[in-house]
Automatic annotation (TrEMBL):
Start and end residues of each FAD-binding domain: 6-173
Organism annotation: Papaver somniferum
InterPro entries: DHP_3-monooxygenase (IPR053212), FAD-bd (IPR002938), FAD/NAD-bd_sf (IPR036188)
Protein's UniProt name: FAD-binding domain-containing protein
Molecular function in Gene Ontology: FAD binding
Length: 182
C-alpha cells in the first residue's frame, strides 16, 4: 500500500485550518503546527469576515452540516462603498451592490467551526515552528519545532510545507527575502 503524502501546515488560524481541510479532502495526511496553547473558546476577538458563495460551499463541505455555518453567520445583502471628502464634509456613493449575497461570520465563531470539524489529532497546539530543511532531492521537508510546555525540540518530516503563519512568516521570508508587505 502506498504511503499517504504528508503536509505540514505552519499556523493554526483560519488560513491554516482551511488548508488542512483542503488537503485532507484531497487525501493527504496533515499536521498543523500552532504556537498558541489551545484554541480560543468563548472569546469574541477578531474581525468579522464576509463569506461569498464559493467560500461557503467549501466550508459547508468540510463541516458536513451546512446549517452549522448558516446558523453562525448573518446575511450581508448590500455592499456599499463611499468616498468621503473630509475638507468639504461630503461623501458620495462610489459603488453599491444590492445583490451582494455574502454572509458575515465572526472570526472566533468561524475558526471554532472549522477547527472542531478536523480530526482531533491534526492540530498540534503549543508547538512553535523553528526552522525547516528541504531534502537534497527536493522530495521532502523536515521541520524543526519546539513543544512549548516541555521545551522539547522535535522534527516532523513531510512532503509539503504550507506557510500559513501570518504576515511575519519566517517561511515566506526564506523564499521571498526581498518581498515587502505594504
Amino acid at each position: 500500500m502506498k504511503r499517504k503524502a504528508r503536509a505540514i501546515v505552519v499556523g493554526g488560524s483560519i488560513a491554516g485550518i482551511c488548508c488542512a481541510h483542503s488537503l485532507i479532502t484531497a487525501g493527504w495526511d496533515v499536521v498543523v503546527i500552532e504556537k498558541s496553547g489551545s484554541p480560543q473558546t468563548g472569546i469574541s476577538t477578531g474581525a468579522g469576515l464576509g463569506l461569498d458563495q464559493q467560500a461557503r460551499s467549501f466550508i459547508e463541505l468540510w463541516l458536513n452540516q451546512s446549517e452549522l455555518l448558516h446558523n453562525a453567520t448573518l446575511p450581508l445583502t448590500i455592499d456599499l462603498n463611499q468616498a468621503t471628502d473630509s475638507e468639504k464634509k461630503i461623501s458620495k456613493v462610489s459603488t453599491r451592490d444590492d445583490n451582494f449575497n455574502f454572509r458575515a461570520a465572526h472570526w472566533a465563531d468561524l475558526h471554532g467551526l472549522l477547527y472542531k470539524a478536523l480530526p482531533s489529532d491534526v492540530v498540534l497546539w503549543g508547538h512553535h515552528f523553528l526552522s525547516f530543511c528541504i531534502s537534497d532531492d527536493k522530495a521532502s521537508v523536515r521541520v524543526k519545532e519546539k513543544v512549548l510546555h516541555t521545551d522539547e525540540i522535535t522534527e516532523i518530516v513531510g512532503d509539503l510545507l504550507v506557510a500559513a503563519d501570518g504576515c511575519l512568516s519566517t517561511i515566506r521570508k526564506y523564499f521571498l527575502p526581498d518581498f515587502k508587505l505594504r
